[in-house]
């Protein structure tokens, strides 16, 4: 069923439009080669991905700072593999990862198609918990920057999704109202519950078909947004 009265559509970036896992894996492959890291690459990724997710949860909750996240997720992944590595190299890999991450810019299937479909009818925006400079490079290098009227990130607001302040800031920047806005994202806690708290409509991007949440509008391919918008 189509959502009525919507004027402004807000997207999350990572894991929603920008294929973070694919781009991140390619970045690690590149910086491992640059720095001569001989660890088992697949084993590293299998440890790193869930550890990174846990660090981002702590970051959203204000329990770790940016630098602790960047160092800790790498250090913990190598420790879980029992791979010995100097702290100085962890810092080097952390810096290289940020420097090279936006050089890979795979988007999820139908990202450009759905943005082309939506842009003539809605004002499009991004709300992201990612870091300012990194996120802006991702948007520009993947050539989707021209679709979005505003980009709100957690560094500019000082809080992270699901804090209501970031959604309210984004709507103020966009000059729109919650009753006419919809938030589209892959993180149920940060994107969906956060947006619902401020009165926004929501669509859960459930790429992995996570069970539950049956009462929430959801899609498993971005092109399915045509059902709602």
Automatic annotation (TrEMBL):
<dbReference type="InterPro" id="IPR041492">
    <property type="entry name" value="HAD_2"/>
</dbReference>
<dbReference type="InterPro" id="IPR036412">
    <property type="entry name" value="HAD-like_sf"/>
</dbReference>
<protein>
    <submittedName>
        <fullName>Haloacid dehalogenase</fullName>
    </submittedName>
</protein>
<dbReference type="InterPro" id="IPR023198">
    <property type="entry name" value="PGP-like_dom2"/>
</dbReference>
<dbReference type="InterPro" id="IPR011951">
    <property type="entry name" value="HAD-SF_hydro_IA_YjjG/PynA"/>
</dbReference>
<dbReference type="InterPro" id="IPR052550">
    <property type="entry name" value="Pyrimidine_5'-ntase_YjjG"/>
</dbReference>
<dbReference type="GO" id="GO:0008253">
    <property type="term" value="F:5'-nucleotidase activity"/>
</dbReference>
<dbReference type="Pfam" id="PF13419">
    <property type="entry name" value="HAD_2"/>
</dbReference>
<dbReference type="InterPro" id="IPR023214">
    <property type="entry name" value="HAD_sf"/>
</dbReference>
<dbReference type="InterPro" id="IPR006439">
    <property type="entry name" value="HAD-SF_hydro_IA"/>
</dbReference>
């Amino acid at each position: 069923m189509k959502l009525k009265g919507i004027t402004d559509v807000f997207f999350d970036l990572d894991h929603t439009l920008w294929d973070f896992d694919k781009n991140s894996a390619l970045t690690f492959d590149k910086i491992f080669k640059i720095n001569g890291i001989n660890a088992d690459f697949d084993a590293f990724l299998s440890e790193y991905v869930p550890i990174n997710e846990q660090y981002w949860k702590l970051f959203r909750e204000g329990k770790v700072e940016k630098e602790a996240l960047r160092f800790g997720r790498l250090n913990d992944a190598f420790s879980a593999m029992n791979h010995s590595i100097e702290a100085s190299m962890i810092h080097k890999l952390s810096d290289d990862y940020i420097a090279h991450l936006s050089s890979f810019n795979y988007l999820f299937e139908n990202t450009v198609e759905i943005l082309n479909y939506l842009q003539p009818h809605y004002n499009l925006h991004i709300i992201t918990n990612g870091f300012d400079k990194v996120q802006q490079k991702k948007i520009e290098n993947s050539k989707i920057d021209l679709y979005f009227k505003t980009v709100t990130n957690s560094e500019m607001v000082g809080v992270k999704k699901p804090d209501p302040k970031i959604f309210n800031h984004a709507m103020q920047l966009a000059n729109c109202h919650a009753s006419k806005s919809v938030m589209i994202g892959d993180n149920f806690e940060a994107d969906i519950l956060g947006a619902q708290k401020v009165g926004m409509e929501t669509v859960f991007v459930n790429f992995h078909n996570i069970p539950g949440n049956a009462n929430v509008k959801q899609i498993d391919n971005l092109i399915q947004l045509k059902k709602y918008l």
